[in-house]
Task: inverse folding
């Protein structure tokens, strides 16, 4: 059996008073056990303050547990190379408002050392998927909350992650965007990605999740497969075409078998409001109705997403430790590995789009496609050589 992508054992997080350290202010998570398998969409549910966000922060290495263990891809959440395999959408989208949508995705692509050609290709796909192609050059300061949320979703996928953690992904989105996000989650599952979803919109969770865990007071109160938790063993639902006379006969038959006091509900099946709304919007889009808002997305058709995990890269990841002295050798002897640092390059970029990680590039193609980066690249010969694998992970398709 494959090792779980996410695993916790007796995970506990207690927040103490900052001055009176023996005084407990909040017990956020208590003895939480989770096992999330590869290729699974797992829902983390619960009311406000139930420990969902705290659990996610521990899995990302942003918080340390008080007791218990947590592992992501079989390693501690603080393992730096493991983070390159994760895509994260926080509950609030913290983005640079002076950048436009295209520059924002390019910035995140630079963090993963994607070559310029690959960054542009993925940016175009993600903007098309989120319906922001026409608004790609507008500053984020002019975006609505829902449009900003779409940029955040796109940025969480720029590195082709194996694990995608979505914290309230549909917050601020219209019904059209909500459906597109759900379609995207199903597409990620089809490609073998693992998705951890935290949401208060239970209908969305019901549509996409394979399993859920319901938290209350930091403890898991219920966990299991969606169909098992929602099944009513004492009820049966039958949908069939029938007129009023046939319906009366069916009710009379059931009352004769179950008794006059039986709780029998007879009503025609109704279309879900979401489906009706989307049908009206699609008709308007087909008529090319004018709008200054978000256009229709492509439903998550992203060709750069790999259909299976990059297992062969794990050995290289193990060799990349923080402060490593040697970089892994390039597969092509003719393609050099360009190193960079935070000195003059950061100053030249004004601190906006600084390269924080390096990647292997084809020298000729990169110079032709991204001449604007040559000035930065020439000043970055002293970059730390501990992240050159990221491009290999991002470009595997």
Result:
């Amino acid at each position: 059996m494959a090792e779980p992508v996410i695993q916790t054992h007796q995970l506990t997080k207690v927040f103490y008073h900052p001055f009176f350290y023996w005084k407990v202010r909040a017990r956020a998570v208590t003895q939480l056990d989770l096992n999330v398998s590869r290729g699974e969409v797992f829902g983390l549910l619960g009311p406000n303050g139930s420990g969902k966000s705290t659990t996610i922060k521990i899995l990302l290495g942003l918080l340390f547990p008080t007791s218990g263990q947590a592992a992501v891809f079989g390693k501690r959440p603080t393992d730096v190379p493991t983070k390159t395999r994760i895509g994260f959408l926080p509950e609030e989208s913290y983005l640079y408002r002076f950048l436009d949508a295209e520059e924002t995705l390019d910035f995140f692509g630079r963090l993963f050392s994607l070559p310029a050609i690959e960054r542009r290709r993925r940016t175009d796909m993600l903007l098309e998927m989120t319906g922001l192609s026409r608004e790609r050059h507008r500053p984020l300061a002019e975006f609505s909350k829902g449009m900003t949320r779409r940029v955040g979703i796109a940025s969480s996928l720029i590195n082709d992650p194996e694990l995608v953690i979505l914290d309230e992904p549909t917050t601020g989105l219209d019904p059209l965007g909500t459906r597109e996000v759900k379609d995207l989650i199903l597409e990620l599952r089809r490609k073998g990605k693992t998705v951890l979803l935290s949401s208060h919109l239970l209908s969305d969770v019901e549509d996409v999740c394979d399993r859920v865990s319901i938290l209350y007071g930091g403890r898991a109160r219920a966990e299991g497969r969606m169909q098992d938790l929602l099944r009513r063993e004492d009820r049966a639902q039958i949908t069939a075409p029938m007129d009023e006379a046939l319906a009366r006969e069916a009710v009379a038959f059931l009352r004769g078998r179950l008794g006059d006091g039986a709780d029998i509900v007879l009503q025609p099946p109704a279309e879900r409001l979401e489906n009706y709304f989307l049908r009206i919007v699609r008709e308007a889009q087909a008529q090319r109705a004018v709008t200054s808002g978000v256009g229709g997305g492509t439903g998550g058709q992203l060709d750069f997403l790999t259909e299976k995990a990059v297992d062969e890269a794990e050995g290289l990841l193990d060799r990349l430790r923080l402060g490593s002295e040697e970089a892994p050798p390039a597969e092509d002897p003719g393609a050099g590995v360009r190193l960079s640092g935070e000195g003059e390059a950061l100053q030249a970029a004004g601190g906006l789009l600084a390269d924080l990680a390096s990647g292997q590039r084809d020298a000729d193609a990169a110079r032709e496609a991204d001449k604007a980066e040559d000035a930065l690249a020439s000043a970055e010969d002293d970059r730390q050589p501990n992240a050159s694998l990221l491009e290999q992970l991002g470009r595997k398709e």
In short: The chain is about 35% helix and 15% strand. Residues 175-190 form the longest helix (16 residues). Residues 6-229 form a domain with the Rossmann fold fold (CATH 3.40.50.300). Residues 309-367, 374-397 have pLDDT under 50 and may be disordered.
